[in-house]
Amino acid sequence: MSERIREKLTILADAAKYDVSCSSSGGTRKNDNKGIGNSHTSGICHTYTEDGRCVSLLKILLTNHCIYDCAFCVSRKSNDIERAAFTVEEVVSLTMNFYRRNYIEGLFLSSGIFKNADFTMERLLRVVKKLRLEERFNGYIHLKTIPGASEDMIMEAGLYVDRMSINLEMPTEIGLKLLAPEKSHNDVIKPLGFIQNQIIRLKDEKKLIKSVPKFVPAGQSTQMVIGATPETDKEIMQTAALFYKDFSLKRVYYSGYIPISNDNRLPIIGSQPPLIRENRLYQTDWLMRFYGFHVNELLNDANPHLDIDIDPKLSWALRNLQFFPIDINVAAYKMILRIPGIGLTSAQKIVQARKFGKLRIDQLKKIGVAYNRAKFFIKCADTPYQLKDYQNTQIKSFILAESQSKYIKNDVQQLVMF
Amino acid sequence: MIYIIDGSLESVLCAVFEWFERKPGKVLLKMKQHFEPDAFEEVFSVNNDPVKADRVWEGLQRTLDASWIRKYYCTFLSEKPDALVSLFEFTCYLFLNKSGAEQNYGNEYVLAIAQTARKVEREKHRMEAFIRFKQGADGMFYCGIDPDFNVIPLIMKHFKDRYADQKWVIYDLKRHYGIFYDLEKIEEIYLSKEDQRKLNDPQTDLVSEKEGMYSDLWINYFKSTNIVARKNRKLHMQHVPKRYWKYLTEKQGI
């Protein structure tokens, strides 16, 4: 018995791993039925794979049989690979036994589409209900919304899971049509909008009636594949910004395309996944969500691509030297956030600490500011007087000379590997 | 002036009380165990007095909000030699200044408390993540740990809330005590050397029959979910420092 389960787990974990979301945060479930499991507000990463990605959830497909033939997907119909399918009981038993040993925060269940959308969604729903109702499992469940599944079924699933997600796959409709002619962004927008409306509706009801059930409490997310189609960073991030705004998404994930196909529409097998680009996109995403940047400040017609050698905050600062130097002892919090080398916690500490007296360089360093980077953009109590203003190219070369870029090292490694 | 304390939280609080009663100026705080008398310094031995400690503690609770009380407690649990000094100096600084003084990250003791607490919270979080239970033949779940800081008091609630329907033991092998949850409440326990050794040794009779199967499946999953083309060992090591590998089922037999 265990040998067959092991084979299935290998196949169906391997097929699920290109979905990068592994977040277990935002859940609010408590273990108040003396069952097992609860949510941890910030989520817990229980381990990390050798590629440095967090493992928080048991991330598997129910099956990798699929009626679709999307060129970028490893489970596409025309791909000659081993196929497998878990039974409902098998998924439940794996989840429970992994959870009881503190291996995982919960389950991320997705599936290839077999027969049709409703048939697939119904099977996923059975797993989720069995976990919640029979096993009294209160851990985290992230469920894929199956495009085209009936609204009744999506509605019911939303009552049991913590997060739902549905992937845009390609950043633009044109890109998607190129690789998956059967699909369209509308298939994604419809269920995203439906779930979003239900979340809002139930939240409103909750104000009046206390006993309204939880509905997708950790919200929705989506994912875009990067580097399979020729979109610019500007197009990618504008799509992301739009979806954050329209559907109040918790996260947009960017997944650097890993060549898995000899299809001539795609990068060839063995070419490097665009890891640096992916990292820069995430940095931009963070700047938009936490640092008060508008997407157009970071990416626009003059700058449709992010710099590879420096991070997007530094590039913005170098393009906008007219805002600097910023006096950290008087500037507004939102301006301090924009200084390269100063993160969220340092910015908060600075505005609190400066109430007690003007801050000096040594204090900034202790607070955690990356001073060697920040020094070109700030003034503090004991900043040395400087006669001459530097050009942005000069600042960039000073910073690059001083910092040891992780990417330069990585590139060397990657060259050696292939 | 040197103040001698026994290293308990109570002794630090009493030292604060004594300092305010006498106002002797700059004071060096020393632990009884480490103290070697020297002929030139004046020495005062702080006696633990629950009434005095309580008064200082109540004062702290009036001054600090819950998140700062937690930072204070975490700093104590760090067991670092200079942590007690930081707590002492921080407390005196708070009481000598207007309310809100704990926000002054420019002060070295405020910053020391905030940073130490952060390290302790990180270790606590790592234990919540890296503890791997093994199920014994008796149905109970076991795990032995040796965290950098004394975090069992901090992780207790998390595990009690989460694993409410199974019996479990978490044992600190470095500090020689553990906690046992019996489906109702948590008890502090002390194991013999022999029993301690058994905790993390899969070859013993503690381990149930199915245990091997699930740990194998987990190792298998861990390998399958890795994307070889994205290999990034530096990042991996940063997230899972080597000293934790001994806990991790998925890192055994590699």
In words, what does this structure look like?
- The complex is a heterodimer of chains A (418) and B (254).
- Chain A is of the alpha/beta class and 418 residues long.
- Chain A folds into two domains: 2-274, Aldolase class I (TIM Barrel); 312-417, no CATH class.
- Chain A contains 16 helices and ten strands.
- In chain A, the strands form three sheets. A six-stranded parallel β-sheet of chain A has the order 3-4-5-6-7-8. In chain A, strands 1-2 form a two-stranded antiparallel sheet. Chain A has a two-stranded parallel ribbon with strand order 9-10.
- In chain A, α2 packs across α3 (117-134), α3 packs parallel to α4 and α4 packs across α6.
- Chain B has 254 residues and is an alpha/beta fold.
- Chain B folds into two domains: 2-122, no CATH class; 131-251, no CATH class.
- Chain B is built from nine helices and eight strands.
- Chain B has helices at 9-22, 50-63, 66-77, 81-96, 108-130, 152-162, 193-199, 211-224, 233-239, and strands spanning 2-5, 28-31, 43-45, 134-135, 141-145, 168-172, 177-181, 186-189.
- Chain B has a five-stranded mixed β-sheet with strand order 4-5-6-7-8, covered by helices on one side.
- In chain B, a hairpin with a 4-residue loop joins β7 (177-181) and β8.
- Chain B starts with a strand and ends in a 15-residue tail after the last helix.
- The model of chain B has no long low-confidence stretch (mean pLDDT 90).
- Chains A and B meet through α1, β1, β2, α2 and α12 of A and α5, β4, α6, α8 and α9 of B.
